[in-house]
Each structure stands twice: as structure tokens, then as C-alpha cells.
């Protein structure tokens, strides 16, 4: 199975800050990587697919980059409504696997 | 508007069975693969099983292979998960999810999720 390792596991930042989350795959997954946002008590929501494509309706402050084994998810200016846990997910090989999540809080 | 509504969760004893259902609407059901993803209490996301648009391709996580069976009824816009031999570690919120890519798109990107149905396995 492909292991997905996210860092950090949690972070605290101020409104307006730039937030960066990394995701590392245990093997080359090309660009077969998605990012999801899960707010407390809610289902996950797709934000980024194919490593860098913004899902329709998602604010442009969210972005993704990377290929191969190393990927980055960025919130350019953190907003109060961005409080959530963020997950990366690979879809290069079965079984489809997720990172352990990064909890983002407001400082 | 795409809607996925899960049902069938509940409290069940270890070793027993339970069947989950997912009623879908708002998209051309038989054009898309569907999946079950679960989340143990306070934990991360785990893909459980997926089924292609025509049921010809079915996959399972190793943790449920041989115990769970996924199926779909395209005439009724419904997805199912039959869970047998349940274990305490199967306790989780089970989400029904839709694949973003249409027929032929085997790689899993989950673009719509239901609200989940809770399965608790305990004596």
C-alpha cells in the first residue's frame, strides 16, 4: 500500500496568515493526489484534484502543487471559516489511501 | 443538486451482519463509480470499497475483503454495502461517495459525500 504522510499533524495560525501543509507519498504517484477539507461534524469536501486543480466553487485562496512523492497544500490567507482538518489522498494505486490529516486552528 | 443519503447504520454485536444503503440523486447514476469510505471515531479517513458504473470492477480494502460486499442497483439509483462478520474495529461512520470521473474513470476522486451512517459494533 502507498503510505501518505502529512505534516504537521496540527497547526495554529492567525487570520490572514499563509498556511502550508505537506504530503509525502511512499512512492511516486505522479500527480494523482487530492486534497479534502473536513469541518467538525461534517463530511469531507473535495478542494483540489490532480494535485493542483481547484474544484469548482472552491475559493482561490486554496491551492496545491507538487508531483512524484512531494506535495504542498496552501491557504494563501487563512480565514475563520477555514478551521478544519485537511487530508491528502492518493489515487495512483489501490487501495486508495489518505494522509492522517492536519488540523488547522486559529491562533 | 447531487445528494447521497446513507441509511442502515446502528448497533450490532460482534460477528453479526448489517447492510448499508445509499440513495443517490441529482446526477446520472449509472455513469459513475461509487465508493464507501469510513471514519473511525476521532480518526482519519479509510477507503473501504468501490464499484464501477456497471459493477464489472469491484475492489475492497484488505481490512474488509471476504467480509463486506458492495453492490449497486442502477435502476433504483442505490448503492449497498453488506457487512458480515463485524468486528469492533469496524465501528465507524460510513460515507457513500461519488467518483468525480465518469464511466471508465477508474481512479478514485471523491467529489460528493453523504453525511454518513454510524455503525457501532459492540456486545
Q: TL;DR?
A:
Chain A has 107 residues and is mainly beta. Chain A has no helices and eleven strands.
Describe the protein's topology.
The complex is a heterodimer of chains A (107) and B (123).
Chain A (H helix, E strand, L loop, with lengths): L3 E4 L2 E4 L5 E7 L7 E6 L6 E5 L3 E2 L7 E6 L2 E6 L8 E7 L6 E2 L3 E5 L1
Chain B lengths: L2 E5 L2 E3 L5 E8 L6 E8 L5 E7 L6 E3 L7 E6 L4 E6 L8 E11 L7 E4 L3 E5 L2
Parallel strand pairs in B: 2-11
Antiparallel strand pairs in B: 1-3, 3-8, 4-5, 4-9, 5-6, 7-8, 9-10, 9-11
Structure commentary:
- The complex is a heterodimer of chains A (about 110) and B (about 120).
- Chain A has about 110 residues and is an all-beta fold.
- Helix content of chain A is about 0%, strand content about 50%.
- Chain A has strands at about 5, 10-15, 20-25, 35-40, 45-50, 55, 60-65, 70-75, 85-90, 95-100, 100-105.
- In chain A, strands 2, 4, 5, 6, 9, 10 and 11 form a 7-stranded mixed β-sheet that branches.
- In chain A, a hairpin with a 6-residue loop joins β9 (about 85-90) and β10.
- The N and C termini of chain A lie far apart (about 35 Å).
- The mean pLDDT of chain A is about 100.
- Chain B is mainly β and about 120 residues long.
- Chain B contains no helices and 11 strands.
- Chain B has strands at about 5, 10, 20-25, 30-40, 45-50, 60, 70-75, 80-85, 90-100, 110-115, 115-120.
- In chain B, strands 2, 4, 5, 6, 9, 10 and 11 form a 7-stranded mixed β-sheet that branches. Chain B has a 4-stranded antiparallel β-sheet with strand order 1-3-8-7, with no helix packed on it.
- The mean pLDDT of chain B is about 95.
- The interface of A and B includes residues 45, 46, 94, 98 and 99 of A.
Amino acid at each position: 500500500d502507498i503510505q501518505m504522510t502529512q505534516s504537521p499533524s496540527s497547526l495554529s495560525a492567525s487570520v490572514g496568515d499563509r498556511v502550508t501543509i505537506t504530503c509525502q507519498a511512499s512512492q511516486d504517484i505522479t500527480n494523482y493526489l487530492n486534497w479534502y477539507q473536513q469541518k467538525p461534524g461534517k463530511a469531507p469536501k473535495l478542494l483540489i484534484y490532480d494535485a493542483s486543480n481547484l474544484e469548482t466553487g472552491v475559493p482561490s485562496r486554496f491551492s496545491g502543487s507538487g508531483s512524484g512523492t512531494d506535495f504542498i497544500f496552501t491557504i494563501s490567507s487563512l480565514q475563520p471559516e477555514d478551521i478544519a482538518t485537511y487530508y491528502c489522498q492518493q489515487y495512483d494505486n489501490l487501495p486508495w489511501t489518505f494522509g492522517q490529516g492536519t488540523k488547522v486552528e486559529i491562533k | 443538486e447531487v445528494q447521497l443519503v446513507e441509511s442502515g447504520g446502528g448497533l450490532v454485536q460482534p460477528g453479526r451482519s448489517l447492510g448499508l444503503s445509499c440513495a443517490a440523486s441529482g446526477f446520472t447514476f449509472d455513469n459513475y463509480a461509487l465508493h464507501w469510505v469510513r471514519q473511525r471515531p476521532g480518526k482519519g479517513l479509510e477507503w473501504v470499497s468501490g464499484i464501477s458504473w456497471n459493477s464489472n470492477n469491484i475492489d475492497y480494502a484488505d481490512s474488509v475483503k471476504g467480509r463486506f460486499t458492495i453492490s449497486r442497483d442502477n435502476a433504483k439509483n442505490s448503492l449497498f454495502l453488506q457487512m458480515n462478520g463485524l468486528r469492533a474495529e469496524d465501528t465507524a461512520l460510513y460515507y457513500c461517495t461519488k467518483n468525480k470521473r465518469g464511466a471508465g474513470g477508474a481512479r478514485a476522486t471523491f467529489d460528493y459525500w453523504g453525511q454518513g451512517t454510524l455503525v457501532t459494533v459492540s456486545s
